[in-house]
Amino acid sequence: MAGRTGDGFELMARAGQAAWRELLARWQGVQRIVVVCGPGNNGGDGYELCRHAHESGRDARVLRIDAHAPRSELARRAFEAYREAGGRVAGLARGFGGAQVVVDALFGIGLSRAPDEASAAVIEAINASGLPVFSLDVPSGLDADRGSAPGAVVRASHTLQLLGPHPGLHTGQALACTGTLALATLGADAALAQVPVAAWRLAAGDLRGWIPRRSRIAHKGDSGHVLCVGGDLGQGGAVLLAAEAALRCGAGLVSVATRSTHVPALLARRPEAMTRGVDGAAALAPLLARADVVAVGPGLGQGPWGRALYAQALASERPLVLDADALNLLAGDPRELPADAILTPHPGEAARLLAVDTAQVQGDRYAAAARLVERFGCVVVLKGAGTVVAAPGQAPRVVAAGNPGMAVGGMGDLLTGCIAALRARGMPAFESACLGALLHAVAGDHAARDGEAGLLPTDLLPWLRTLANDGPRA
C-alpha cells in the first residue's frame, strides 16, 4: 500500500488486520497459509497479516527471496514485529507444500514497470501453485491505474483493495487477474483514499431508478424517434439489431434506412420498425428530417453507398451515435464532431481512430478514451472488458458488468440502439452513453445465466425491456 502519511505504521497495522479478517471471511476454516512478501509496504501488510495468522494458532509462514528483504522503514517495522511474535521466514525453495491459501503481498499500487527476473519467477511460482491466491491491494505485476500488466502478473482468486478503489482493476487485462474484489478503507481520512467507487464505477445496482417510466398520459412522440442507418448488401442483420434494441429500450418511434433488398426481411422480423429502402443520400434526407437521433454505422459498409449515407448523416445536425463502419470512415477522414455526438468503438476501431495499434489502446484504456475525447471533442464509449465512458469535462466511468459470452458479432449493434433510444428519450449525451453501456452489460449478464457459450445478441432483448422498466413513474 502506497501513499501513507501521518502514522504510517498504524495504517499498515490496520491493513494487515483488515486483510486477515477478509481472508478468514473468504476461506472459513483455513489453517495453513503462506504469505509471499515483497520489499515495500505491500510486503509490510503481508507481514502484519501473517503475524495475526501465527498468533491465532494457524500454520502460517512468510516466503520471500533475498532480493525482497524489507527496504522501507514501515516494512522493516512490520517484519521485526512478525519475528518477535515467533514468525517464520523461508526462501522460495521451501515452496507452498501443505498450504491452503497463498497471500500475494509482493508489490502494491506503485509498480508501473515489468517485474525483474527474480520477481517474475516468484509470480510464476504463485500462479503455478494451483492454490487460491489472495492479493493485497492489487495483484502483483498489475498497473492499478491502467489495468494492464507490462510483464508477469499474479492471477488472484480474490483481491482486497486498501484505502480506496483502483480504477485499473475494473477494465482490460485486470479483469482476468483480480478475481473477486473487496475494499477496506481502513478508517482513513478521505484525503488518503482515491476517488470513491460511486464517482467512476457503474455496477448493476446503479440501474435501479435511473430510467424513469413513462407518464400515464404519454404518447409515442414523447419518447423520441430514432433513425438507424446501415445494412449494406449482406449486412441487414446489423442495422436490424440496432433498431430492435432501440425499440426494447423505449424509443417511441424507430425508423431504419437500409438497402431496398433488405426491407421485406426486416419488416417480417420486426414490423414495428419503419423500414425504408434508401438508394442514396437524397432518399435519406426526409428520414433525417423526422428523426430526433441518428444511429449510423451498423452494417453500413465503406463503399460508395455507405459513404454517401454517412456524409449525409453527419451533415444533418441531428444528435449522432456512430458505430462500426461509421467509425472506420471517421478514422479515414478525422474531424471534430459536435460535443453531443457519441462514438462507440471497440479496441480495434479505437486504434484506427487514434492511428496506433490495439495493444496501445488496451495498455491504458482510460488514456485511450481520453485521447479520443480530445481528438473528436465528443462522448466516447470504449467497448470491451470493463467498458470506459468518457466525455469533455467529465470524470470517466467504467462499467463493472458484462461477461465473455458477449464477445460475439452483433452485440455492439445492440449497444448502439440502446444508447440511441435513451438519447431520443431526452437524456443528455454522456448520461445516455453511461446508462446505455450499463444497461447493455447487465442485460448480457442476465442472459448469460444459462451459460456464456452460445449467447446471442437477441438473447438480450427481453432483458433490455425488463431492465429499462425498473424506474419510478415519470
UniProtKB/TrEMBL annotation:
CC cofactor: K(+); Mg(2+)
Q: Which GO terms describe its biological process?
A: metabolite repair; nicotinamide nucleotide metabolic process
Q: Where is the YjeF N-terminal domain?
A: 1-194
Q: Give binding positions for (6S)-NADPHX.
A: 238, 299, 346, 413
Class of this enzyme = lyase
Binding of AMP: at which residues? 383-387, 412
Instruction: Offer an example of a GO molecular function term for this protein.
Output: metal ion binding
Enzyme Commission identifier(s): 4.2.1.136
Domain YjeF C-terminal: from-to ranges? 203-471
Q: Which Pfam families match?
A: Carb_kinase (PF01256), YjeF_N (PF03853)
Concerning PROSITE patterns, the annotation shows:
YJEF_C_3, YJEF_N
Catalysis: reaction(s): (6R)-NADPHX = (6S)-NADPHX; (6S)-NADHX + ADP = AMP + phosphate + NADH + H(+); (6S)-NADPHX + ADP = AMP + phosphate + NADPH + H(+); (6R)-NADHX = (6S)-NADHX
Which UniProt keywords are listed? ATP-binding, Isomerase, Lyase, Metal-binding, Multifunctional enzyme, NAD, NADP, Nucleotide-binding, Potassium
Note accompanying the cofactor annotation: Binds 1 potassium ion per subunit.
Q: Which CDD domains match?
A: YXKO-related
InterPro entries named among the record's database cross-references? CARKD, Nnr, Ribokinase-like, YjeF_N_dom, YjeF_N_dom_sf
The record's PANTHER family line, in alphabetical order, gives: ATP-DEPENDENT (S)-NAD(P)H-HYDRATE DEHYDRATASE, ATP-DEPENDENT (S)-NAD(P)H-HYDRATE DEHYDRATASE FAMILY MEMBER
The entry sums up its family as follows: In the N-terminal section; belongs to the NnrE/AIBP family. In the C-terminal section; belongs to the NnrD/CARKD family.
**Function according to Swiss-Prot or TrEMBL:** Catalyzes the dehydration of the S-form of NAD(P)HX at the expense of ADP, which is converted to AMP. Together with NAD(P)HX epimerase, which catalyzes the epimerization of the S- and R-forms, the enzyme allows the repair of both epimers of NAD(P)HX, a damaged form of NAD(P)H that is a result of enzymatic or heat-dependent hydration. Bifunctional enzyme that catalyzes the epimerization of the S- and R-forms of NAD(P)HX and the dehydration of the S-form of NAD(P)HX at the expense of ADP, which is converted to AMP. This allows the repair of both epimers of NAD(P)HX, a damaged form of NAD(P)H that is a result of enzymatic or heat-dependent hydration.
Q: How does it assemble?
A: Homotetramer.
Name of this protein? ADP-dependent (S)-NAD(P)H-hydrate dehydratase
Query: Source taxonomy lineage?
Result: Bacteria, Pseudomonadati, Pseudomonadota, Gammaproteobacteria, Lysobacterales
